[in-house]
Amino acid sequence: MMAAPTDWAARALALYDQSYARRYREHDDQFSTSEPCRRFAEWLQQASTELPRPMDVLDLGCGTGRYFWTLDGVRELIGVDASPAMLAEAQRPYKRDRITAERITLIEGDLFAQDFAPGRFSFVYSIGVLAEHVPFDATVVGHVSNWLKPGGVFAFTTVHPKSPSIPKTLKRRIGGAVAGVVPRRFGRPVRARLLAGGLYADEVHISELITPAFTIEALWRFVSEAHLHCWCVARKRNG
After folding, report:
1. Contacts of 150 (CB under 8 A, 6+ apart)
2. What is the pTM of this model?
């Protein structure tokens, strides 16, 4: 019997309905006019370029399959998404004539409920999902670390807590000022509130979660049409 979705998956189901998915897919066709989308594609290609081929790849929160075409040397590409409407659109993804993956498998389900074999993938990526629609936390990092081969790569984006898209409430302004001046050990509860339980993630939070199992190869900020983001590329440690 299928497990009940988490609150995060239920929210995605409510948001990404058929109408939204159709508009999202139409936006895919404007890809060439979006600098952030072009940069995401370039970064995914760069992040995966040194991995041995053929490789198996996992797209966490694949949506309409916007980035399926960017990778080469893929044996199987598995896309997971909670929204059946988005996955229906992923049946005809952007630039499907340029997709070289030998096999694409689409899984409708909760990101938190997947159970892949240890070391199943060489490359796991997630764009516009973690610390945006679902929390970026130790659970996510633990799952990805387990699913990746040693030396495998995890590439992902988060929404930075200083993003202009986040309402600057009085509490957030005060919390930001306090967190910036007190020693880190005393400011942790305030930082946790600013990160909204993992729905936002800055460089410090990402580093704290990632570095026990991964070596960070790239971590920087950039601005999209919607948010101030962090982009991280991390390689799973051997042994």
Report:
1. 119, 236, 237, 238, 239
2. 0.90
